[in-house]
Structure formats: C-alpha cells, structure tokens
Amino acid sequence: QVQLVESGGGLVQPGGSLKLSCTASGATLDPYTIGWFRQAPGKEREGVACLTANEGSTWFVDSVKDRFSISRDNTKNTVYLQMNNLKPGDSAVYYCASDRIILCSAYSALGSMEGIDFTSWGQGTQVTVSS
Question: Least C-beta-crowded within 10 Å: which of 37, 54, 69, 90?
Fold first, then answer.
C-alpha cells in the first residue's frame, strides 16, 4: 500500500504562492489518482483538487479554479499542488490522498470530491495565509 507524505506548507501573505508536494513511498505513484483536501478549524474537510492516474483529467473546487494547479512528476514519485494568489480563506491543513480507481472527471458532475472515495492519506501540512 502506498504511503503519502505532504510537504511545502507554511505562512504566506495574501496574494502569495506555495507549492505543496505529495510524495509516495512503498509503491510507484503512476497508477494512483491523487486528491488534495483541506480542513480548517471548525470546518468540514473539503476536496480541493484531483488528478487522475494515467489519463490525467483534473478537477478543482470552484473556489480555487484559476488559482491552483495540480501536476505529477513520476520520476520523483510526487504530485504537486501549485497555489497562487492565496487568500486567507485558503488557510487550512492540506492533505493528499490516493486511490487506484477514481476518475476525477466524475466530480465535475457531482460538484464536490468526497474523502471517503480515497484509501490512503498523508498526515497533512499546514498552510496559513495571513498578513
């Protein structure tokens, strides 16, 4: 089973950028769909972005479209979440998760991404957007 570790979080001013990494061990990441989720204090976990294995389709929650992007570097066994023009509302613990059978395009019709669909999770990395 794949193990995931997130990194790259930190404190950034509004309008700034961060690039989160989700690095896998125990298995190659190629056949896994990766989802990024976030959870702020007192709020429910929210699906943010998704990248389908192999065919590469993506999904983003409306609040981050045009600001976030997701990419994969199979040589480094890592998936990245590039976050630009960050806002205080983006502050949360960010988690990556994996699954072998999810198609991210399904979330376009659903409007949201559910964590219950994913089988392996990282420990999270804190992102704080504040001046």
Answer: 54
Whether 53 contacts 103, CB under 8 Å: no
Q: φ, ψ for residue 104 (rounded to 5)?
A: -60, -30
CA dihedral 28→111→62→14, nearest 10 degrees, is: -60
- Do residues 49 and 60 touch, judged by C-beta distance below 8 A? yes
**pLDDT single digits (tens) 10-55:** 999 999 999 999 999 999 988 999 999 999 999 999 999 999 988 8
Strand partners, 21: 7, 80
How far apart (Å, rounded) are the C-alpha atoms in residues 84 and 120?
26
